[in-house]
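Our platform keeps sequence and structure together, in a single record for each protein. Such a record has a labelled line for the sequence and another for the backbone structure tokens. This encoding replaces a full spatial description with a residue-level series of whole-number codes. Below, we set out a record of this kind in full and without editing:
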Amino acid sequence: MRLRWGIIPGLLFLLLAASCQGGTAMVSPTVPGSPAEPGSPTVPGSPTYPPEWVRQPVFAGRFYTADAQELETEIDSYMAGKEPTTGRTLALIVPHAGYMYSGPVSGYAYADVRGQSYDAVILIGQNHYLQDFSGVAVYPGGAWRTPLGLVPVDQELAQAILQANPAFESDPARHSQDHCLEVQLPFLQRALPGTPIVPILIGYPDPQNAQALIEALAQVLPGRNVLLIASSDLSHYPTYDQAVRVDRSTLAAIETMDPLQLRQTVREEMSAGVPNLLTTCCGEEAIVVVMEVARRLGADQATVLHYANSGDIPGGDRSKVVGYGAVKIWAIK
């Protein structure tokens, strides 16, 4: 049976390897303005936000260190020695586990766009916790905080996406309990400093949700210089060897740039009777959206930059692992 709600509550004890645990609620926003949030660094000419418009770092100190200097050093070490590959990157697929597990893999993806210029980054993930959330939620404005400071939300772009489909939700509380987008931000702050974001969370993992988001983004994004990011881990809880086989199959399907091939591969692997296999990729819909939208924007290649799983860390348990892949989606011309 395919995973329907990300990681179910009974499996939350696998916090770091599985990368799933909730956070606290957030107050709905009002119109942004002054005064600045208490405790915020003041930079001349920078926007200010009232507290209710700033999504706080729920998972700092849990999935990654809350110490800013240590965090910078750790992320830089993950990207060190890796040079951008050929071609302009239109999209990335990156994992979202605790940094000790997936950080070295994420480093390959973010090193590939380090120092490049994008007008905005669209972050797409799948709901892991909220069982009453069945739609698509676009964070409407304000900023997200990490130990490295504030990351502004591109409000104009977020509102354009919301207007493209009136069924999309703008309640920021939908984002308050999920880690899958938050853990991307410190990497973005080191690789693409100052670049605004549009966080998007898909609720119930239904292909109709994915298609609705594909059509909205395909309507809004042409002519904009954006980077798409799908946040997803790969196989959950098979043995090390089985994970490597299943994950290679999933990544090969992604490299075809064909969402239907990915869906077929997921169905086949989930029906193959692999012991303890809960899902092949916990962000399947996010990956499908990014693959298809990038293709419509001109991408014609997907390249796996790196693969590993939680059994690869020193002392890692190889009886139940989670897989992680870094994928670049790009255009040859």
User: Anything to note?
Assistant: DSSP finds nine helices and ten strands in the chain. The chain has a mean pLDDT of 87.
